[in-house]
Amino acid sequence: MAKNGPLLILEDDEDDREIYQNVLNEMGMRNEIIFLTPEMQCCYLQQTTERPLVIIAILMYPG
């Protein structure tokens, strides 16, 4: 398991991104935080060999 990799947060809402950033900063998170929109997710994961520490994905289903 990676211990030094980035945190990947799959979120496209700018307000939610700001909340994540503020909370993680207050927690003293030192790892790089990478926000990805749905459009960016596949490209990023195909182009990097870096192993993330954590992936946070928000799943919303219609209805």
Give a verbal description of the structure.
The protein is an alpha/beta fold and 63 residues long. The protein has one domain (7-57). Helices cover 37% and strands 19% of the residues. It contains two helices and three strands, in the order E-H-E-H-E. This is Response regulator. It comes from Chitinophaga pinensis.
Q: State the helicity in percent bands.
A: 25-40%
As a whole number of angstroms, the C-alpha radius of gyration is 12 Å
Q: Could you give a short account of the major beta sheet?
A: 3 strands, parallel
Shape: flat
From the N-terminal CA to the C-terminal CA, the straight-line distance is 36 Å
User: Strand order across the biggest sheet?
Assistant: 2-1-3
Quantity of strands, as a count:
3
Order of helices and strands: EHEHE
Topology at a glance:
Blueprint: E1 7-10, H1 14-26, E2 33-36, H2 38-47, E3 54-57
Parallel strand pairs: 1-2, 1-3
Keywords:
single chain; 63 residues; alpha/beta; three-stranded parallel beta sheet; 2 helices; 3 strands; 37% helix
Structure described in brief:
The chain is an alpha/beta fold and 63 residues long. 37% of the residues lie in helices and 19% in strands.
